[in-house]
Amino acid sequence: MLNKRIKEIILQNPSNEEIVVYGWVRTKRESKNFSFLEINDGSTIKNLQAVLENNIPNYESIMQKTTTGASVELKGVLVCSQGKNQSVELKVSSIKIIGEADPDQFPLQKKRHSFEYLREIAHLRPRTNTFGAVARLSNALSFAIHSFFQEKGFIYFHNPIITASDCEGAGEMFQVTTLPLENIPTNEGKIDYTKDFFGKKASLTVSGQLEGETYACALGNIYTFGPTFRAEHSNTTRHLAEFWMVEPEIAFCDLQGNMDIAEEFLKYIFKYILEKCPDDMDFFNTRIDNTVIANLQNIIKEDFARITYTDAVNELLKAKVDFEYPVQWGINLQAEHEKYITEIVYKKPVIVTDYPKDIKAFYMKLNDDNKTVRAMDVLVPRLGEIIGGSQREENYTKLVKRIEELKLEPKDYWWYLELRKFGTVPHSGFGLGFERVIQFVSGMQNIRDVIAYPRTFRSIDF
Ligand code: 4AD
Ligand code: MG
Question: Which long-range contacts (CB under 8 A, 24 or more apart) does 404-407 make?
Fold first, then answer.
């Protein structure tokens, strides 16, 4: 049987029944006749207060070893607490140290540590309040994502991680190879991939979309939720080289329908978090950013703004702000532009559509103007882009033309093109960056602090 967790224990009434509690010591306060321990077991941000009187067996020798970070087994009964932070506390009758944590060596002492330092001890940081809260938030968000799509009858689809095609056509892929790097086989001056594990060039996926489309064009509505990899050299607070993406793909659906789903989806998961993670959200709101709860509450209530890229550029041109990247029609919107649109102009999430074709991927449906595509980015205050998506080009001839225009090889996408040959349908989808949502919901500044083991340009520890 599983042990009772502190999350449940602190909600119980005082009772004479003996209970057993397992956890790690967060702090100890000693006085002459008794000591207080704060015990945390990861089930909640809250600690269980344990009171030890000096008449328990081996009191002094045990208290010496009961230091911050040690794991313990406590037996005792729940009594009313005099303290203002909790209604019950554990009156301990016996304590066993399971694993000591030498105070001269254990790095997580009571003082506050910088997030930069905690990244260096990523194996221990889940034992802090912040990273415990991030982990529970991430768990709840994953569940909310699945419930949203499952309630709507979407089929969860596992896209391959190793792939032979570049979804975004941007060449930002990590290669997967077993070729000996110190002696790469060549044939007429070129790398001989026939000697490689798969017999051809292979990479880690940047997105499950292309394969997702094949399943949507058979099962109707699907979603993927898995790791994706980007070898981009962006060293920013919102880019990772390995991150998780949620990608729904919907058959018989245009951009309008796609925007509706994206908006409903974000509101659903935000509402879920506010309802299911009140203690952790309270922590983020008091310790990290005191606007997160109010912001989420407002977002749930209000409609997102919906504007075209051209409207967005016009807003930026009107702005009396010195942007680092000058604005003109055709540019890729930078984080500073996205923030201006959401924070200053609309003060809420904004869905920007119909971007110039030259700055978007080959698969997006071309508009009649021949200049823009049926793309949509969902931008949120503080962070900028959280979702990227589009209606897909379902016309065979137009799609081949786009692939060629972008100097990609139609033959590499033969199977993707066949969807447009056999029973083609209008379809749309989007990708939500999972860590960006956690960042947004928690108010955490750096994306490296919302994933357990961040991988970024020139940085991989652990
Ligand atoms: O806009 P992106 O590149 O879109 C796609 O990959 C499409 N294939 C999705 C689709 O239509 N099925 O990426 C989607 C989202 C972004 O909006 C962002 O939230 C996140 O993925 N993202 C990243 N998150 C962390 N680190 C990175 N390097 C990211 N790149 C994209
Ligand atoms: Mg994008």
Answer: 405/362, 406/169, 406/362
Ligand 1 pocket residues where CB is under 6 Å: 167-168, 207, 209, 230, 232, 239-240, 243, 245, 247, 385-390, 429-431, 433, 435-436
Please say whether the structural domain 6-110 has been given the CATH code 2.40.50.140: yes
Nearest residue to 25 via CA among 79, 96, 86: 96
Distance (Å, rounded) from C-alpha 26 to C-alpha 243?
Answer: 31
Query: What pairs with residue 405 in β-bridges?
Result: none
How far is the centre of ligand 2, averaged over its atoms, from the C-alpha of 215 (Å)? 22
Q: Hey, where are the domains in the chain?
A: 6-110, 125-170+206-449
- What CATH number was assigned to the domain covering residues 125-170+206-449? 3.30.930.10
The CA–CA distances, whole Å, from 408 to 362, 438, 443 equal 9, 35, 39
Ligand 2 centroid vs 284 CA: distance in angstroms?
27
Output the CA–CA distances (angstroms, integers) from residue 40 to 5, 92, 132, 139, 276, in the order listed. 9, 15, 10, 18, 20
- Ligand 1, atom 1, lies closest to the CA of 388
pTM surpassing 0.90?
yes
pLDDT in tens, the chain (462 residues): 788 899 999 999 999 999 999 999 999 998 888 999 999 999 999 999 999 999 888 888 899 999 999 999 999 999 998 888 889 999 999 999 999 999 999 999 877 899 999 999 999 999 999 999 999 999 999 999 999 999 999 999 999 999 998 777 777 899 999 999 999 999 999 999 999 999 999 999 999 999 999 999 999 999 999 999 999 998 899 999 999 999 999 999 999 999 999 999 999 999 999 999 999 999 999 999 999 999 999 999 999 999 999 999 999 999 999 999 999 999 999 999 999 999 999 999 999 999 999 999 999 999 999 999 999 999 999 999 999 999 999 999 999 999 999 999 999 999 999 999 999 999 999 999 999 999 999 999 999 999 999 999 999 999
Atom of ligand 1 nearest to the CA of 239: 26
Nearest CA to ligand 1 atom 5: 431
Ligand 2 ion: Cβ-proximal residues, 5 Å cutoff: 388
